[in-house]
Amino acid sequence: MAATAINLNRLAVFVAVVRTGSFTAAAEQLGTTKAMASQHVARLEKELGVTLLLRSTRRMALTEAGALFHADCVRILGEAEAAIERVGENRDVPTGTLRVGASSDHGPAVVAPALASFARLHPQLKVELVVSDRIADPIAERFDVSVRVGWLRDSRLHAARLGAFRQRLVGAPSYLAAAGTPRRPDDLAQHGWIALSVLPAPLHWTFAGAGGTRRSVRVRPVAEVNSTLSAYAMALAGGGLSVLPDYLVDDAIGDGRLVSLLRGHRLPDGGIYAVYSGRHPPAKVRAFVAHLREATQR
For the domain bounded by 100-164+271-296, which CATH number is listed? Predict the structure, then answer.
């Protein structure tokens, strides 16, 4: 008889009968009846095609095949209990390796420091950070968490919103001294623009002004880059104007290396999300998402 035809629940009944020494005691321990316990063992013997127990009115004894099978059953059930315990630990306590994906700007600026402090809180956990401006597939690339900024498009995955970022129009003082400072959105058409090619519409921007008025403008690119860090570096060097996230440019604005422009007009805020697969993420994912949310909202 093929092993797949065996009802594995009967192994536990068989082991309980051998451990307690009687069908009555085993039935009480398992919360069933003596007749049901006896039936399980009889059916197990039929499925295996061997006699496991020799029974008489006064005593019960294992056959040679029964003794060998009992030893294997004890091992199998022990391994099953250990596996269940490990799953429980994975559910309740962060363990193993936490593999995180993030963009090349937000990853080093925000995710890496948060991951470092998280690792200090959980020294039993190994952490990995992979940064890229390409939108990664968490399932195919085996990321536990993928941190995405902007606007989500993948409905197959579960996402937890961590916070938001502001989009800031910026330029270097050296560029503004040469080209002038824009005062309203329409002025941007006369300025050189550092375009971020990974955006869906890198040359089209809609600003919201006082009272909810909206103004859409099309800009003229003098450079095109495929990463936010490259756009940031070019803006710092006076290469033109660009729209960049606040977590990347606020320090440079604070110390005067960049100037925040059109402060009376606002671009849409972007979201920051922790994206993961599965309805029931392990403890390491739940704990890191909570930790990153706290770090993002400081």
Answer: 3.40.190.10
Q: What is the mean pLDDT of residues 271-288?
A: 87
Round to whole Å and give the CA distance between 16 and 219. Answer: 78
Is residue 2's pLDDT more than 70? no
Asked if pLDDT for residue 1 goes beyond 50, the answer is: no
Picking from 204, 177, 188, the residue whose alpha carbon sits closest to that of residue 268 is: 204
Report yes or no: 111 and 145 within 8 Å, Cβ to Cβ.
no
The two beta strands, 145-150 and 97-102, are parallel
Q: What is the pLDDT of residue 3?
A: 47
Q: Give me 166's structure tokens.
A: 């502001």
Give the residue carrying structure tokens 């490990």. 86
pLDDT digits (tens, 9 = 90+) for 222-251: 999 988 999 999 999 999 999 999 999 999
In this prediction the pTM is 0.64
Q: Contact 242/193 with Cβ under 8 angstroms?
A: yes
CATH architecture of 167-268: 3-Layer(aba) Sandwich (3.40)
Give CA–CA dist 265/182, Å, rounded: 12
Q: What is the chain's percent helix, strand, coil content, to nearest 5?
A: 45, 25, 30
